[in-house]
């Protein structure tokens, strides 16, 4: 089984909704224009799509932040850019949202978020039904939505108790199959330390405990724009893909079912 994983493409950085001039979206857009935009290289996504076609993975996984400020036009652009993966035959495309995809409470933004992620997931894994378990012959994928709107510069996420209960239950029932958690937030940083509170997943220590104990085999995530991989003493992995359009990296993860072994490498697009 082969997985290609990316995250945080951050389309947009523009405002096309009048109400956005009076809420957090104006702050996010200014930040994008003054800071983030100069680091973005859309050629990385073009190269990534070419590599995905060549590699022919079983799964392509995106761990969120399609947008910069949840503008409907940003979701539309992201969907257009990722259409080649949706249309690819023989490839499962799994998607979970990030904090920038749920930037504010807005009916139009929320509707665009739901429609876009449901289309990316080919309407097989509706966002409204998350967390979602996918059991294959090789492993179990658990897709989870950890995003929520925040105030100011806070970019933290939130793990609902009922969502953790499902993840814990499914992990216990795995019967030896590796469990791959697909979420937006790293449970720790590259040094194995807790993230700063304003950037961390609230209640994430509960998932971190499952990872440490080997109940979760791999946590695939994004959010932090610098890619990293770390390993727990149990052998479980946490792999943050970073920002594809800024860092220019793809996470390539392969699982050998006979040896019950994961192997990981980076595809550098620079």
Number of helices, counting only DSSP H or I runs of 4 residues or more = 7
> Tell me, what's the shape?
globular
Which structural class matches the secondary elements? alpha/beta
Mean pLDDT: 93
- The CATH superfamily is identified as Metallo-dependent phosphatases
Distance between the termini: 26 Å
- State the strand order across the main sheet: 4-5-7-9-11-10
Report the CATH topology name. Answer: Purple Acid Phosphatase, chain A, domain 2
Q: Portion of residues in helices?
A: 25-40%
Please state roughly what percent of the residues sit in beta strands, choosing from under 5%, 5-15%, 15-25%, 25-35%, 35-45% or over 45%.
15-25%
Domain tally: 1
Largest sheet descriptor: 6 strands, mixed
**Quaternary organisation:** single chain
Topology pattern, helix = H, strand = E: EHHEHEHEEEHEEHEEEHEE
Low-confidence stretches: none
Using only CA atoms, what is the Rg?
A: 17 Å
The CATH first-level class comes to Alpha Beta
Provide the CATH architecture. 4-Layer Sandwich
Number of strands: 13
3D architecture notes:
This protein has helices at 24-36, 43-55, 72-87, 107-120, 161-172, 204-212, 244-247, and strands at residues 2-6, 59-62, 92-95, 132-135, 140-143, 157-158, 179-182, 201-202, 218-221, 228-231, 237-240, 249-256, 261-268. It starts with a strand and ends with a strand. The longest helix has 16 residues, at 72-87. With 270 residues, the chain is an alpha/beta fold. The chain has a 6-stranded mixed β-sheet, covered by helices on one side. A 5-stranded mixed β-sheet has the order 3-2-1-12-13. It has one domain: Metallo-dependent phosphatases (Purple Acid Phosphatase, chain A, domain 2), CATH 3.60.21. Helix 3 (72-87) runs parallel beside helix 4 (107-120). The protein is globular. It has 7 helices and 13 strands. Helix 3 (72-87) links the parallel strand 2 (59-62) and strand 3 (92-95).
């Amino acid at each position: 089984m082969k997985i290609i994983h990316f995250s945080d493409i951050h389309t947009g950085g523009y405002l096309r909704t009048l109400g956005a001039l009076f809420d957090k979206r104006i702050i996010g857009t200014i930040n994008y224009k003054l800071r983030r935009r100069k680091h973005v290289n859309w050629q990385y996504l073009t190269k990534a799509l070419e590599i995905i076609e060549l590699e022919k993975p079983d799964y392509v996984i995106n761990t969120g932040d399609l947008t910069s400020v949840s503008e409907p036009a940003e979701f539309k652009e992201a969907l257009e850019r990722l259409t080649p993966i949706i249309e690819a035959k023989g490839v499962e495309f799994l998607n979970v949202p990030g904090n920038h995809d749920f930037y504010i409470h807005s009916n139009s933004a929320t509707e665009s978020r739901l429609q876009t992620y449901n289309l990316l997931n080919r309407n097989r894994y509706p966002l409204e039904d998350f967390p979602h378990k996918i059991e294959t012959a090789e492993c179990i994928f658990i897709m989870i939505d950890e995003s929520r709107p925040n105030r100011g510069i806070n970019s933290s996420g939130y793990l609902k108790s009922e969502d953790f209960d499902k993840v814990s239950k499914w992990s216990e029932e795995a019967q030896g199959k590796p469990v791959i958690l697909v979420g937006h937030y790293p449970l720790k940083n590259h040094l194995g330390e807790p993230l700063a509170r304003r950037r961390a997943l609230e209640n994430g220590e509960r998932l971190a405990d499952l990872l440490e104990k080997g109940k979760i085999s791999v946590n695939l995530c994004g959010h932090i724009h610098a890619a990293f991989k770390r390993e727990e003493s149990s052998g479980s992995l946490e792999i943050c893909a970073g920002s594809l359009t800024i860092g220019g990296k793809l996470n390539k993860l392969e699982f050998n079912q006979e040896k019950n072994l994961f192997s990981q490498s980076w595809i550098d697009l620079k």
